[in-house]
Amino acid sequence: MRINEVLNFTLFIKNFIEFPEFHIKHKNMVDNLKPCVFHPENAKDCPIFRLNYIIDQAEQNATERDLMLHYGGVISIKLDWDCNLDRNIKVCKPKYSFIRLDVPFREKPFSFGFNFRYASYWKHKSTTYRALTKAYGFRFIIAVSGKAGKFDIITLTLNTGSIVGIFGFATFFCDIILLHLSKQARIYRKHVFEAVRLKTRFNRVLKSSKDAIKNNEEKYSNFEPKKRRSLSNGTHENIRKSHGQTVVMRPLTLFNSQQIIPSQSV
Question: In this structure, what is the dihedral angle of CA atoms 201, 205, 208, 213, given to the nearest 10 degrees?
């Protein structure tokens, strides 16, 4: 049997936390707590929750919510603290979340919802009676987790040193100092960098042409000067000597068929 007014029941969650390392204790209630009901926008600091709000957050399906009201269910309420201790501790408030833990009814489980049995005893005319009742309802499991942090110069220095070592910033800054700020920067730069002169294609072709011309000049410079020798027919021949051979250059003689010039031996 469903009781519609059960949705207006309220649940008061009272939670106390402690951070032993910082010697701080805190609670989820304000000092001057007034009658209120939690609202995600208008009343975030209020620790009193309406059952209707909890069920809506834990289960979005309307059919499943109706079955939960008939057969009960298990809901987890989680309080998550994340405190910045550099600020006032009163500013730190928990974040509430609601999750359904029992198996949904649409999956047709062997055991669904949540129920429990209890016995009632009474006595009438020296006879003892017992009534065993099976009740359906909601079971809430509250879990608390949190963390807190505070600025520490030693921790910051250690983390910065680790980052510098990991990413190689130390080498980078040392090179900048040695290359630009030290007195021996020029000497250090010579050991670190290697000068490379890039030549264009035109310069390479020009150099190849010059080398070819130079080789030809060296080849022909080994010949001796020309020598002229008179021939018996009144002509001259040019003789050029080179290493290992003699080259004879004779002039061309023209004649006609009617005039025969006797040949002369050389």
Answer: -160
